[in-house]
Write a structure and sequence with these properties.
The complex is a heterodimer. By secondary structure, chain A is mostly helical. Helix content of chain A is 80%, strand content 0%. Chain A contains eleven helices and no strands. Chain A starts with a helix and ends with a helix. By secondary structure, chain B is α+β, with helices and mostly antiparallel strands. In chain B, α1 runs parallel beside α2. Chain B is globular. Classes of the chains: A mainly alpha, B alpha+beta. Chain A binds chain B through residues 4-5, 7-9, 11-12, 15-16, 19, 33, 37, 78, 81, 83, 85-86, 89-90, 93-96, 98, 156, 158-160, 164, 168, 171-173, 175-176, 240, 243, and chain B through 1, 3, 10, 12-15, 17-18, 30, 32, 34, 38-41, 43-45, 48-49, 52-53, 56, 58, 60, 62, 64-65, 68, 70, 72, 74.
């Protein structure tokens, strides 16, 4: 074991030495770069706080809140190397389950949170569907399956879903700018054609708690999540056996 | 012992992994594969995949947003 470790260490040392030599040639440039990163980070942090304050004063508290949530979401995604694309792709590609599990757990936690929000926003048995949280219950149907399929192909080719693409542009991965351009094209096309889809394809929104009551709805949701987990586990195990 | 370098700079997430998997099949036990990446996502799933398969892995940041992943084939 020790001998094996040392072969990696030797290669690392050799490459580090080669890099150091290279850096010596343009040393000033290299040492400056490291400092700039910290300075920029501090400046950016201050700019984020100022922007949040300006949003609150000039636009609304809600915009400031959305700004904070957006930044937090991005930071979490980046630091955790969280990737929804990898979550659905890796079980089949490498047999890795870690991201798929974390997404399922995240949906589980979100279910509890959203249930609380919906519950606090009125009795589902009364006709309050147009108000509050119920307004955001979207219709499900064939278009969901077709859209999911197209989105799945797109995100695996592009190397990121919506949030992942945005996060990696922030990291400076330029190739994903191309993804963003076509992502915007797609969204604009979708919204332009939305009336057609709304009239011809969409069903009525289905709100589980309204149809079944709160406890059965939550139970159903968790059973479905568990079925998702079993499916992913099955795919992952099959993939690992193939090797 | 053989050392193979794989340049995956500018390649998005699954490509470095797929390339590494193919390169790994051409190597003997004890050989070293060095993959250059600049996609942060590959920094997570490459080592995870390699460790899952029982290889030795180390990562080194060679520049801002650039890494080298060292994988030693162990079986």
């Amino acid at each position: 074991m020790e001998k094996k470790q040392s072969s990696i260490a030797a290669a690392r040392a050799a490459r580090r030495a080669a890099r150091a030599k290279e850096n010596e040639a343009n040393q000033k440039k290299a040492s400056k770069k490291g400092k700039i990163q910290i300075t920029l980070g501090v400046l950016l942090f201050i700019a984020i706080i100022i922007t949040g304050y300006v949003l609150k004063v000039n636009v609304s508290s809600k915009s400031a809140l959305m700004w904070v949530f957006g930044i937090s979401f991005g930071v979490t995604l980046q630091r955790a190397r969280f990737c929804f694309t990898a979550a659905v792709r890796d079980p089949a590609l490498t047999g890795s389950m870690s991201l798929a599990k974390s997404v399922l757990i995240a949906i589980g936690i979100a279910t509890i949170g959203f249930a609380a929000i919906h519950y606090a926003n009125g009795d589902p048995s009364t006709a309050k569907l147009a108000k509050g949280a119920y307004y955001f219950v979207k219709p499900v149907g064939l278009h969901t399956a077709v859209g999911a399929f197209l989105f799945g192909i797109g995100m695996v080719i592009a190397g990121g879903c919506a949030s992942g693409t945005l996060m990696r542009i922030g990291e400076g991965f330029m190739m994903q700018m191309i993804t963003l351009i076509f992502f915007i094209c797609g969204v604009l096309l979708g919204f332009a054609n939305r009336p057609f889809w709304k009239d011809k394809i969409f069903f009525k929104p289905v709100h589980f708690p309204k149809e079944f009551g709160w406890v059965p709805a939550l139970f159903l949701q968790f059973v479905l999540l568990f079925l998702c987990f079993l499916t992913v586990e099955y795919i992952s195990r099959k993939r690992k056996q193939k090797k | 012992m053989q050392e193979k370098e794989l340049d995956c700079l500018g390649e998005a997430c699954p490509i470095p992994l797929v390339k590494a998997e193919k390169a790994m099949n051409t190597l003997e036990v004890g050989d070293l594969l060095i993959i250059s990446i600049d996609h942060s996502c590959a920094m997570k799933n490459l080592p995870e995949w390699a460790r899952d398969n029982g290889h030795n892995v180390e990562i080194e940041e060679t520049g801002e947003g650039q890494w080298e992943v060292f994988i030693e084939k162990c079986k």
